Amino acid sequence: MKIYSFEAITSIEDVRQIPSYVPLGEQSILIPPSFPWIKDKLQDIAISLYNFDWEKLPTLIDALKTKTFEFTSQLTGATENSPATISIIENLFQSLHSFVNRPLNQIKDKELLSFTERLSGLIIYSYFKTLKVNVSLLDPSLFVCIGSNSKIDSEKSAECLRTLIQDQDAIVSILPARICKNGLEETILMPAKLHTLYATHMATLFHAEELTFYTTKQMSSASPDEDVCSQFKDYTITYNEAKSIINAGFNLIPKACLDLAGQHGINLRISNYYNPNKQTITITKTSTMNQIKAVVTRKNADYLQIHSSGNLMPFQFLTKVMAVCGDFKTPIHLISSSSVNISMAVELSSETFHQMENQLSQFASVSVEKDISVIHIIGQFDQEKENMEVKVIDLLKDIPILMISYGSDNNSVSVVVSKDMGEKAQAILMDNFAGQDFMKRNVAPRFREAYSAMSI
Q1: Quick check: helix, strand or coil at residue 259?
Q2: Interstrand relation of 235-238 and 280-284 (parallel, antiparallel or unpaired)
Q3: pTM above 0.85, yes or no
Q4: Which family does it belong to (predicted)?
C-alpha cells in the first residue's frame, strides 16, 4: 500500500489534478489538502461562538454550505451537484449545526476546526465518486488515538484500526488529515505543523511501503541552465544522508518523520506538485555506496575563536566555555578545540555576542568573524574518509579554510570559509566531487541560502 499526502491547494484546476497522482490499480490512501477558505469560515463561526453572537451562526454556516456546493459543482464542471454529493454534504452540515448547538462548555475549538479537514476530505471523496472510482471516506477520530503524552498512541490506534477496516475493499481511501481522539474520546485536531508527522504515523498504521508528500513549495531555485533543470528527475538519498542534510540546516522533512519512517522501513518521497517528474526526492534505506549526494551551505553563521588566558586548567577552560554557551542557548554548528583554544561556528546576535564576551573575557580572549559559510559535503564515502580531508584541503588550496571537521556525523565532511568565499568554495567542491561533467550526468543538488530552495 502507498499513501499520498497533499499540502494546501487552493485552485479548482489544481484540485482536479489530484486523481492523476494516485494510481488506481492498487490500494492506496489519500490524505487530502486542507482548503483555506473552509478554515477561514470556520474561524468566523468560532469567533461568533466566543462572542456569544448566536444569531450570526445560521447565516455563517449557510454561507459555508453554499460555498461548498459551489466549489464541488465547479470541480466537476456540472451545473449542479449530484444527489449523492448533496446528501453527504448535507449530513456533514447537520453534524456542524448539532455541534454549535451544544452547551458552550462542550464546544471545543479543536473539534470545531476539525470540520476543516472533514469537509476538505468530503469534497475530494465526492469528486472521486463522480469519476466512478471505488473510493471510501475514513473517519480518523474512530481509530487515531492520542496518548497521555499528547502523541499518537501507535499500539492503541493499530488495535482500533484492525476492527474498523476488516471489510475494506476500496481502491482509494480518503483520510482527512490531523484528526484524532484523546483519552476522553473527544475529537481533536493536531497542529498544522504536525501534518507531515501525522501522515507518517498513518503510513506506519497501514503498513505502507511508501509515503509521498506532494508539496507546492519550489524545491529548486531558478537556474540559468534550463537543460540542467530538465534532467533532474529523481534524486535518491538514504535515511542517514537525509539526516545529514537536515543537520546541515536544510528543512527537508521533520526529523521525527525520518526516524519513524526509518524504523518501519517506509520509503519517503517528496515531490513538487506542479512538476513531479522533474522534482522528486526519494529517501530510502537502500545505499548507493560511494557517492556525494549534496553540498549544503549554511550562510550567515559566525566564526568564534576563544583563546585561554592561561588562568584555568585545560579541562576547566573547556568546561567554562561550554557552560557560557549553555547559559545563552547558543546554536553551535561546528566546534574544534585544543587545550587552550576553541573555535566554533555559531549563530549569535550582536547583543548576545557582547554578553557572552563579557563572561568569556574573565578567562579568555575572544574574536569573531561575522557571516561565514559552513559547507557540508554529504554522501556515502566511508571508504574514502581517510582521504577526504586531504581532498578538501587540496581543492580549496586557494581559499582560506577556517575550520574542517567530519565529526558532525558519519555522512558528512564540513568546512568553514569566509562569506565572500562561500559560493566559490561550494562550486569547486560540487564540480570536483560530483565529477567533471556532473551537471550533465549526476545532477546532484546544491542547497542554497535560507534552506527553502535547492539548485542544481
Answers
A1: helix
A2: parallel
A3: no
A4: Belongs to the aspartokinase family.
